[in-house]
Amino acid sequence: MREEILSNQNNALQLERLYRGNKPGFKAAFNALYPELQTNPLAEGWYQRLNFSQGLSDGASAWGTPAERSFVIAASLFAALIAKLPEIFPISEDFFYPRNIGFIVAPVLMAYFAWKNAVSWQTRGLAILLLIGAIVFINWLPQNENSDTLILSCLHLPLWLWSLLGAAYNGGKWRNGANWLEFLRYTGELVVMSGLLVLAGGLTTALTINLFNLIGWDIQRFYFKYVVVCGLACVPMVATFITRVQPTLVSKVSPMIAKLFSPVALVMLVVYLAATLVAGKSPYHDREFLLVFNGLLVGVMALIFFSVAETDHSGGNRAQIILLFLLSAATLLVNSIALSAVLFRISEWGLTPNRAAVLGANVLMLAHLFYVGLRLFAVLSKKAELSTVGASLGLFLPLYSIWSAVVIFVFPLIFGFK
């Protein structure tokens, strides 16, 4: 968005198109660029337009329109209602929450973006059918705590729902015209804002419970059962609303987090690999260690993608690009070790649902990391623009969605629900 605004700073029509395509993202990027554009009369007009506090003519304010606020309140209450279904109906919590926790959050967020982006009713109908089908399937699976396919389906379902949310965020578009990089930025902002809300809620909870304890009232069980559970269900919707109507609140925090934790992750990864060699640990024979190894891989991969998205947004510098390239190279090494360990275990002890799922994920991540690394190297060699790195992220995200769908809906059938 930053580069597009700079290249079209004198083109009023193109700026209007960029603004209508992504209003919160445009406002955040434009306000960050404004000190460089103050001498431009067109930029001055846009600044006044974006930051002018609207009156009562359209009912808007710094916290959205009345219709938007009403939608958020209704959606939050609906999410809280879904979270309390095990108490309303005779449903086991151990059965309900592992299978349905994603459905507490995803449908209301999808509805919000479908409403904001005026998604066609045909697309909304398809999304509703996909959600209903997923709900029926995941709750139809036999209850077996030792079933690997059930656990894999429950673990991959939030990822698949996240990809459906991305389609809603992009106005119902999946590939052509879909801006997955902006969706990644929104995801990062959502995580940051949700974390702040949970922290504030935790402090409020501790204060409230202790205040009532002072007068002899033990409200802890009641408070956690109703207030905390319902509050947690509402957090993603409220956090999304805040990031949309107040984009500047976290627009500077997310790049700072990316720049701060990228070098920390690189140092930690290198030290961890060295310590692994010294300790004589091997993911080839130690299953638990391989799980930790893959968990580390997923976490660092997520940090790389988030960092690339924020670097592309803020423009970045050469030192930051070099750091991301080194981090991607180190993660590529970790991925290669993990993949070879999975292949070794399959050759020695055969194919299981867990090994098949990890194998597919590792192959996909290896290809993605290699492609991102090539794009970063091209940027360092001045053979490509930084925007190509961001585009490389969006290229693979639909593939992750397809693979997660295979694990959720196909694995239980082909492995006999084992």
UniProtKB/TrEMBL annotation:
- Asked whether the UniProt record includes Transmembrane helix among its keywords, one would answer yes
Report TM segments: 96-115, 121-142, 149-170, 190-212, 224-245, 257-277, 289-309, 321-344, 356-377, 397-417
* Top-level taxonomic group: Bacteria
> Keyword Metal-binding, does the record have it?
no
Using the record for this protein, list the coiled-coil segments as residue ranges, or answer none: none
Q: Which UniProt keywords apply?
A: Membrane, Transmembrane, Transmembrane helix
Name by which UniProt lists this protein: DUF4153 domain-containing protein
